[in-house]
Design a protein that fits this description.
Layout (H helix, E strand, L loop, with lengths): L5 H9 L4 E9 L18 E3 L1 E15 L15 E14 L4 H8 L2 E5 L5 E5 L9 E9 L4 E11 L5 E2 L7 E8 L11 E6 L7 E8 L3 E3 L5 E3 L4 E7 L3 E10 L2 E2 L1 H4 E2 L2 E4 L6 E9 L1
Parallel strand pairs: 12-20
Antiparallel strand pairs: 1-2, 1-7, 3-4, 4-10, 5-6, 7-8, 8-10, 8-11, 9-10, 12-14, 13-15, 15-19, 16-17, 16-20, 18-19
């Protein structure tokens, strides 16, 4: 242990992955994780300028299904059940305008008076459009970024405005991400680890082949944007039975596979190849 250079480890690995600053809250269309450096947000795309800390939470509610079963062990993998996720953001905004007031109140409407002034009027019910999409993007020390997307965000602590004699006014805000009853499995918060500008990432190649299949594809990873090609061959006395290819979880077999040959012109996400055989 005495020969380990901890300073080098911190400098070369951990240090590169640290967050710099408190990040920025952006509108739904202001950030694209597929082209993260292609657009510089303008004022109207910045939801709020913040002060001090940003808090991001993703907390599961877990039930032990065996907890009240006599004779059953507690704390087992088989007994644990994930009931739901609770996603949220908390921050202090120093932006104060009609858009930010509407965002804090959520259940409110904005109208324009004859002189151009904006009127923000609360209401006692929510509309579907009150649940908005937003991004929080924070730079990393290595030049990359962490981006968090909330598909259905709602301000849930209302308006908490503080104005002082000698300092700037602030609004304490809490945002909750809500899932739709139309699709309970569609999580409302997603996390992205963005590579530094100009860096090419890699995709993982996973092959789930039965013992009678041989693949000419030996690489475990491939550069994003590059091609991937190879063949699958069944052992003597066997034939390829079922072959599936997915990329980023999307079924692409019909487009990239034919008669034992796989050909992907451009790899854009992780690839999974599955093949089974049957006797001739």
């Amino acid at each position: 242990m005495s020969n380990i250079d901890w300073n080098a480890i911190l400098r070369d690995t951990i240090g590169d992955e640290t967050l710099i600053g408190a990040g920025t809250f952006l509108t739904e269309d202001a950030f694209d994780p597929n082209d993260p450096w292609g657009h510089i947000p303008v004022n109207d795309e910045i939801i709020a300028v913040t002060s001090n800390d940003i808090s991001v939470t993703a907390n599961p509610t877990i039930t032990d299904m065996f907890e009240d079963v006599n004779g059953a062990p507690n704390g087992t993998i088989e007994g644990v059940h994930l009931d739901r996720w609770a996603f949220g953001l908390a921050f202090t905004s120093i932006t104060l305008n009609s858009s930010n007031l509407k965002f804090a109140l959520s259940a409110a409407d904005v109208s324009t008076l004859q002189n151009g002034a904006k009127k923000v009027k609360p209401r006692n019910y929510y509309k579907e459009e009150d649940f908005i999409g937003l991004w929080w993007v924070c730079r990393k020390n290595n030049g990359g970024a962490i981006a968090i997307h909330i598909a259905k965000a709602l301000s849930t602590n209302g308006l908490n405005l503080t104005a002082t004699k000698t300092n700037k006014g602030t609004i304490a805000q809490a945002v909750t991400a809500y899932v739709s009853a139309k699709n309970l499995d569609e999580m409302p918060m997603e996390f992205y680890d963005i590579l530094p500008e100009g860096t090419t990432g890699t995709a993982t190649i996973t092959q789930n082949l039965d013992e009678n299949v041989e693949s000419s594809i030996t690489a475990k990873t491939v550069d994003l944007g590059s091609a991937l090609a190879g063949t699958l061959t069944a052992a003597e006395g066997y034939v390829l039975d079922e072959v599936t290819v997915t990329m980023g979880g999307t079924y692409i077999t019909k487009d990239v596979y034919s008669a034992g040959t796989i050909s992907i012109e451009e790899v854009t996400a992780d690839v999974v190849i599955t093949a089974t055989t049957s006797e001739e």
